[in-house]
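Data availability (excerpt). The following record was deposited with the supplementary files.
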Amino acid sequence: MAYQGEPGAHSEIALRKLLGPGVPALGVPTFRSLFARLREGRVDQAIAPIENSTMGTIPETRRELLRGGLAVVGGLHLPIDHALLALPGVRISELRSVRSHPHALAQCKGNLARMGLKLETAEDTAGSAREVVEQGERSVAALASAEAARLHRLSVLRVGLADRTPNVTRFLLLRRSPSLPPQAAAARPPPSRRTTELDLLRLEVQRVDLQLQRGILHRLDLARRIGEVKARSGSEVRDPRTEALVRTRWRDGLALASIEPERADRLAEWLLAESVRVQKALTSHGGRRAGTPVRPDPALS
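Predicted structure:
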């Protein structure tokens, strides 16, 4: 079994969660070497990240899947909690830079910028923790897992540094596909290639679904805030003119995708009904504390 990185890397954590803590695992320095070992038969299986909820698709893995010759045999979604690690006794105010894999830095760049830290790239998250220990620089931190902190006896100064939460990565467990006879290969694409392309398309659908869900939750939260303003001013919950504009907006927008006006109207009516429900709840319950998130009715989700 192989993974990209060193002990304490999130890929190793995913591998052990999927196959058990005692599974023999080999860490390799780069994605290129990981997939080379798998294709050459030097390892039986490998685990690799394919998509992150903050960054989207991982391009290195996607490229290798599209090359064909690999089969997906398992996978899992792993919550990624990036931690700020430093030498024992170091305070955050002493730090000047943070080192990690580019993907990890990208997932946390907003929070790291607010801390005023210079970004330094490394081959691996856990490898950056090892480098902090080896170099002994008190002004340099690593962005890695709490497991990497434990292995290298570093202090955890802060956790939950991802700009967006939840920050989840999907990992795929891969093996090399058996070769097809030349006649079959000429007649049709290898099954493994069709499978991986289908997996990638389904990942895109999943990503869009998550965006839609976040958008609906955000829209309902805006409806709640509008309801609070209406409650303070004594305005009516229903506004026929605004509701008509919403219906027109959805009908015109979905017409671009050749969706029938009646279907667009049904979607607009559902959104309007949910907004009215949220705003009426403010009146019937005497108001809701500002900032309280709106949860959609399970019966309507």
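Summary of structural features: The chain has ten helices and eleven strands.
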